[in-house]
Specification:
The chain is an all-alpha fold. 70% of the residues lie in helices and 0% in strands.
Length: 176
């Protein structure tokens, strides 16, 4: 077991929830994760994260979506420093976008939010701005139920990546 996972397992429930909210903005997800401890290894925490996420519904998914900056925009000042830093890293492909692509992403974000009622969620890690724009254009064609499921799956992927980052951060704190 990693030192980060051991640290997460030992935190008081409220502190564990606060740490887990950095990975996913759904309070019910974070609470479920904190209650599922202790985790024996990285696979167990990943499995629990997916299981709990899939048991949640629309309102919890939307709560998680609201904690993200729009693709191509800087993270808001709310939330933790880690979450803001992670979001910037995840969206690095959008930061280097050409002006016309950045403008198209902004316009696409507005159209998506007007159509679906929440921001465009995509697991941006490793994707170029052009790829994210193409996906945005494709997803605007979806019906609301299909799109909500796709957005929830993208959030699930983001959460998994952030859990890995959280465990590394917790491990680094132990080592200090």
């Amino acid at each position: 077991m990693s030192a980060g996972l051991e640290r997460l397992n030992q935190l008081p429930a409220a502190e564990a929830e606060d740490e887990l909210l950095k990975c996913c903005g759904s309070k019910n997800w974070a609470r479920g994760m904190a209650q599922s401890r202790p985790f024996r290894d990285a696979g167990a925490i990943a499995d629990a994260a997916d299981r709990i996420w899939r048991q949640l519904g629309r309102e919890d998914w939307l709560a998680a979506f609201r904690c993200h900056p729009k693709i191509g925009e800087k993270p808001a000042q709310g939330g933790s420093a880690e979450t803001r830093r992670w979001a910037e890293q995840e969206q690095s492909g959008a930061r280097s976008a050409k002006d016309d692509v950045r403008a198209a992403l902004a316009e696409g974000n507005r159209a998506y939010e007007a159509h679906f009622g929440y921001i465009y969620i995509v697991c941006a890690t490793g994707r170029t701005s052009e790829e994210m724009l193409a996906l945005l254009s494709q997803r605007l064609q979806n019906d609301p139920d299909t799109e909500l499921r796709i957005a929830a799956e993208e959030q699930r992927k983001i959460t998994q990546l952030r859990l890995e980052k959280l465990l590394r951060e917790l491990e680094a704190r132990v080592e200090r």
